[in-house]
Amino acid sequence: MQITGQLTLTVLMGLFLVIIAAWLARIEDWRSYTPLGSGGAAGESGYVSQEKPTGISRWLTTVDHKDIGMLYGAYGVLAFVVGGLMIMVMRVELLDPGMTLISNSFYNSLLTSHGITMLFLFGTPIIAAFANYLVPLLIGADDMAFPRINAIAFWLLPPGALLIWAGFFPLGDIIPAQTAWTLYTPLSTGAGGGNQANAGVDLMILGLHLTGVSATMGSINFIATIITERAEEVTWANLDIFSWTILTQSGLILFAFPLLGSALLMLLLDRNLGTSFFAIEAGGTMLWQHLFWFFGHPEVYILVLPPMGIVSYVLPRFAGRRLFGFKFVVYSTLAIGVLSFGVWAHHMFATGMDPRLRASFMAVSMAIAIPSAVKTFNWITTLWNGKVRLTTPMLFCVGFVSNFILGGVTGVFLASIPVDLVLHDTYYVVGHFHYVVMGAIAFAGFAGLYYWFPMFTGRMYQRRLGKIHFWTWMIGSNITFLAMIVLGYGGMPRRYATYLPKFATFHQLATLGALLMFVGGLVWTYNFVVSWLEGPRVQDGDPWNLRDDGMYTNEWQWFQDRQETAITDGGDEDVVADGGTEE
Amino acid sequence: MDEQPGLSDQYRMASPWPLFVALGIPIAELGILFDVFVVAVAGLLLFCGSLTGMIREAGYAETAWRPLAVFAVLLFAVGGVLAFTDVSLVTRGYAILTAGGILAAAGIGGELFVPKRDPV
Ligand code: HEM
Ligand SMILES: [Cu+2]
């Protein structure tokens, strides 16, 4: 039995490699030349093949930044749908304290997976989608500095997702992790009598590790691209705000993610190979929290800075004025980037750490609110007396500002030790960060998706449906997350599948809001799918009439050039070629 | 920006290697972590092989043989440490050594027996 098992595995693996080799041989066939040295930098030599292969091969082999941007986008959106469906099951379970739709342990599994999916499989990739597509266009580069590494970074993500979700697939005794996204030890080392020694947790950690490697590769690429590949006319002084936030974010990734990777490897070694980095007696519990949050707090800024960049970029276009205090928005971005490494222990106020240290972390956490507020005031002042046009992307931008204020202010309260000791581990914290991650980050993501939809697809979405989507989400998110804040004040602890009857009303409200967002999500899906397939074609390179206000930008110019050449070629088909309709 | 906008779709870039570099990493990791000999070997071969392909494609090396040999040396070093020192992860070490051996055989064999192509 053992032997045959080994044998089949060997044969399978051998076959796998042979198939890959055969496919590669075919692919190599359409290369009619011997590549010359390119040093990996951009240019039309080296990695260039004669032409893009067609069909599925095109998507599997592309190293074009726009294609990879589309792949990241598709991936991020898919992960968002998965994470969203997970939370809908959980919110239904929370409709009533006695509800038994799912078991408590399944609730914990969904909770863990929802958090990780949204942060690592939706948040980071959707930002990378915009960055890949737009940064080279904005700074006038031919492509990313390292196009192949760009592709590797993307292709690490699908295996990462499969590993993270592996516990949900019917694979023998493998069960999903129930550690929550923070993976606190000793639970996550598998110690004690629980079931978290299961291989499902190892798979999830491996998957997380892969997404970390992917993010790190991507960040190196963006730093190199923005520093070295700018066109001559793009200087540091006139670099656009979105590229600035991507540059800062990449810097944060470069320092934060390798640390997460190492901590995860240590955890894996503890779990599988008998090391004792996180042994309880040696203070391992605190060690994990320090390592995790040294990564974890910068991670939240990794997620929020580029969306802030999108808002700073899009909002002025519909206010008819330039971004107010551009320089200060850049400075505050950099300030947040630096400060974000000095606040991590505000997640650990309740652990019994040294009170003097605690106070210093409180001070820095409060200080980081200042640059955040600078940005907020700049957005508001940009709107002030502007010629505001409430298009769907603009609505999402304004929604972002509103939700970010609520998320930020609740954050400042949490940064105060005495307040945090009362509210820590309650729904208040859940409300706080959902205002930021859903209310702000996701809103900015959708602002970007709507704003550049005509460019990505060559077609226009249905405006009315876009507005319905916005309002269901704006109202829904505020119902849900405000209810959570109230639940937190009442003392409802986070991460439970059930609760005391006195909390029922507000949990039901939270579910109501979630259902509203679910409906909005359906409207959005319908709108994007149908508009992509048969929406009206965009006729010129300025679908938002930005020229009227003198707000026209590089990426639309590129879009217009491409459209014009497509038309002179007589090729109606070519208009959407890069939009990737031909999967 | 786009100097030749009209031609942009004819002169696009593609490379088959990144996908397999990315697949090789998790397969090798899984094999090594869970101590599954063949999976570890296959993953390492895929990873190192695809990297070699990429290195050659980018023009850093003329043929695949030398990069393969370099990877073999690296794998020998890591595998050796795992198998023969106090780390004492013997089976995992042997898996890595095996992958190294196959790469070395390919590299040396290729260098010795495959006729050199004229550079184009
Ligand atoms: C104005 C600046 C902010 C301050 C002062 C702040 C402060 C805090 C504090 C003190 C906590 C810990 C609460 C506790 O567990 O007792 C916390 C939790 C959290 N914050 Fe913020 N925050 C800010 C902005 C943000 C932003 C911009 C994001 C997201 C992009 C964010 C995401 C989170 C998350 C995810 C958690 C919960 C982590 C967990 O325990 O699972 N925060 N915040
Ligand atoms: Cu924090």
UniProtKB/TrEMBL annotation, chain B:
Keyword Transmembrane helix in annotation: yes
Q: Which UniProt keywords apply?
A: Membrane, Transmembrane, Transmembrane helix
**Where are its TM segments located?**
20-47, 68-87, 93-114
Indicate what this protein is called per its UniProt record.
Cox cluster protein
Judging by the UniProt lineage, the source's domain of life is Archaea
Pfam families documented for this protein = DUF7541
